[in-house]
Amino acid sequence: MAKINSGGRRRAPLAAGLLLLSVAAAFLVAYRVIGSDVEADGRLHEPFALIPLAWLSGLAGAVLVAVNFWRVRAKR
Asked: Is residue 67 assigned to a domain?
């Protein structure tokens, strides 16, 4: 039986982590671009949901990248 190359599986956490870090950066850029304003009656309009989404995706991406580097280092 032919041996299946598992190189793609080793790079998957790194790729997913980098993608999540990029998404986090995009959320933060979108938050700054959209901006916030105060209406005449005192209501604040801002894309607040982008802040926790950026933190969560950034944290998940950082964990995946760290796990990938830890696994690569452990195999050496």
From this structure: no
- pLDDT at 8 exceeding the cut of 80: no
CA distances from 2 to 6, 10, 11, 56 (A): 12, 19, 21, 40
Residues 76, 42: contact at Cβ < 8 Å? no
pLDDT > 70? residue 10 = no
Helix, strand or coil, per DSSP, at residue 49: coil
Print the domain residue range for 21: 14-35+44-60
- Alpha carbons within 13 A on the beta-carbon side of 21: 12
Residue type, 11: R
Q: 1 versus 56: which is more confidently predicted? A: 56
